[in-house]
Design brief:
four-stranded antiparallel β-sheet, about 35% helix, elongated
């Protein structure tokens, strides 16, 4: 029988380096707490897409391990930048519009080699 993990599924997929980075963020200065509260409110109010939704989409369409996740403001819009390590050692960055969840860009080499077979052109 499987027992439930105490960590959310998306955290388990992030891997040790990403999980360690998230845990270390607990040492951030107190002024950073307001930024996180604002982001949580934006997700709760459905103004931005929750990160687990995008990680689930990536897992369904691409093979790889998440290395880094950033939420950045770019030209007055919020964008998630998710960097993944592919099976051939390639590093690919996926950019998603944070409000719509739409994939707006990809950068890297051998991106097609990361596509899951059912998604291959």
């Amino acid at each position: 029988m499987m027992t439930a993990s105490p960590l959310p599924r998306f955290l388990l997929r992030l891997g040790l380096p990403m999980l360690a980075a998230l845990l270390l963020q607990g040492t951030a200065p107190a002024w950073a707490d307001n930024d996180w509260q604002d982001l949580h409110a934006a997700v709760r109010e459905e103004r931005i897409v929750p990160l687990p939704t995008l990680l689930d989409w990536l897992e369904a369409h691409y093979v790889g391990q998440v290395l880094e996740v950033e939420l950045e403001r770019d030209d007055d819009r919020l964008a998630y930048e998710i960097e993944m390590l592919g099976p051939q050692g390639q590093v690919v960055e996926f950019e998603f519009d944070a409000e719509s969840g739409e994939l707006v860009g990809m950068e890297g080499v051998r991106i097609d080699a990361m596509r899951r077979r059912e998604d291959a052109p």
